[in-house]
Amino acid sequence: MVKKLISILVVGALASSASIAMAGTAPQTGVNGSFHDITYLGATIGSYKQDDYQRVCIFCHTPHNAQANTGGVPAPLWNHTISTVNLTPYTWAAPANLPISFNADPLVGPSRLCMSCHDGVTAVDSHGPDAGVGTAQGNNNGTTPLTSPGRYIDNLSVTHPVGFLYQDALNARGSNEIRDPSNYFLSSVASGAAAASNNTKTEVGFTQGTAKKISDTLYGGYLTCASCHDVHNTNNAVNAASISNPSFTPNYFVWAPETNSALCLSCHVK
Q1: Which of 13, 95, 170, 269 has its CA 20 to 30 A from that of 127?
Q2: Where are the alpha helices (DSSP H) in the chain?
């Protein structure tokens, strides 16, 4: 069954319902109980079909009878329908970016696996021979966190580009604009007024966030969805609480915090 996907990366819509923030939703607490746990979502939030045995990994992985690695998609013991959508690719606006090469398939590597849930078409709760029975939930004006608009991707031209060679970007823009991929992701240590003393060009005021280097998150040199996101919620950044709602600590499954844009500044020298 196909349905309009609601992205599992629930953000601001949860701010009004602190009671939903349970174990697993916080950064670095693992996939169980997180918003990548379809059984948990089916039991607590959405209309997704729970796994008969309350398994978590089964929606993506299986130890037996997994899908073959076809089409160059790195599918480790993959148990979910692989997205076949062909989306409008990103187009460089700045002339200086034109030498930066995109793969023939911009969803190269793990990106197509991510899109197996985030393409707005493939049923999130499908796994193995089960096509999924979750009813289609509207993309817009939803009444639950999972129906927030924009939580799926159906147009790559309006997202951060993926599927390009990071080294091409470094060559085209230079080290004064793009950081060396051997650098670690950053973690901001200042906020608010104190952030004024930070220097994003020299990284003064920032510290190493996780043990991940940028190069560790590239797929054959290509930047993919997994270059920013830790889908298993194990080593990702611990974000600060929302200023507007201190009881809400967002978890975007990212390698560096959103605070002071440490995630962006891990790669971009601005």
Answers
A1: 13
A2: 38-44, 110-118, 166-173, 262-267
